[in-house]
Amino acid sequence: MPRLVFDFIEGAAGREVAAARNQARFDEICLQARVMEDVATRALSLEFLGESYRLPFGIAPMGLCNLSWPGADALLANAARSFGIPLCVSSAASSSIEEMRDLAGDKVWFQLYVAPPVEQSLDLVERARRCGYETLVLTVDVPQVSRRVRDLRNGFTLPFSIGGKQFFDFALHPRWSLTTLLRGAPRPRNFLQSGKANRFDRSASRAAADWDFLDRLRDLWKGRLIVKGVGSSADALKIKQLGVDAIYVSNHGGRQLDSAPAAIDLLPKVRAAVGPSYPLVFDSGVRAGEDIVKALALGADLVMIGRPFLYALGAEGGRGLASLIRAFSEDVSVAMAQIGAATIADIRPDALFGEEETAEDDRAAFMAPARKRA
Ligand code: FNR
């Protein structure tokens, strides 16, 4: 893909410290192998908010996926359907809410950005309801889009403004450029309904997604509601108390606050705040099957992945996407065998190195307090 497209996908806020930290922290977390458990067959399926999925991970909401490869949205929808994994369609998707519902089936989720006018956002909610979405994800960590230096340097704008630099970039990627030219440059389709004055301004404030709005949305939306982009325990508790069905812990892949802690460090704190049975989704920095296992051990019920799917699409289209999903799933399965987990429910905090002894100590303390005192 052209450099400016790759940079739009790969890029993050500021100096890209948060994005790097997301991944680096995963590498520091170790799993504890266990031996001689009954793991000859392993089940990777799970239930989340009453829906069953065949794998413990899914596709995070991303705007303009068709930039990675023409027709990427349809390929993502097909993959979600055939692998039985959740796909979250972005407000800023390059296909419409309705098209994506048709392509992806009844398990697809819709992600909402709230930008002024608020009525335009509520219109998206109504369209999602009308065409049968049952899960709505409200993203709240983009009160203002961050400065993405790569985009500024590359002159990445939508629609594309094509000067000499961009022309040269496209010319060096003829297959991408010609197919994209033939199919039409990707646009945020949900905002291009004929006869309506709606549009998507990427730089507009999305701070209208405030507490009052969430309260209003909870009344309005009768389906499952998830709030995405949460990392503070205090916020998480407040959201839970407002009757939201699940929290999506994420730092937007490091694309918003460059000084944010690694998202994986936020997860156990949020888990501790909301209690053991409140549903949590996680994303940011997952790059391997073992990262998925680590996130599950640290308190996630379901793990979402962003950029890697777009890289796979850019490299090999639908074939790349399918082989990446297979690779993640095989890696999760093999890692489960190593840590003695036959089902997703068996992946608990004691799968983490360093936690095991504590768990054993706690058990010992529970069973034989006298011995511990001695
Ligand atoms: C995103 N993300 C995002 N999130 C969201 O709620 N709505 C959106 O429209 C988008 N758009 C978007 C575009 C692109 C190109 C990227 C890379 C990301 C954030 C996304 O849902 C997710 O939180 C991160 O991508 C997770 O981090 P990793 O897996 O990419 O490290």
Give a quick set of tags describing it.
binds ligand FNR; single chain; disordered C terminus; 374 residues
Total of helices: 15
**Head-to-tail CA distance between termini:** 65 Å
Give the ligands present.
Answer: ligand FNR
Largest sheet strand order: 3-10-9-8-7-6-5-4
Sheet having the most strands: 8 strands, parallel
Radius of gyration: 21 Å
The outline comes out as globular
- What is the ordering of alpha helices and beta strands? HHEEEHEHEHEHHHHEHEHEHEHHH
**Poorly predicted sequence stretches spanning 5 or more consecutive residues:** 365-374
Class inferred from helices and paired strands:
alpha/beta
The average pLDDT score comes to 93
Task: Determine the fraction of residues in helical runs and give it as a percent range.
Answer: 40-55%
Tell me the total number of β-strands: 10
Query: How much of the sequence is in beta strands?
Result: 5-15%
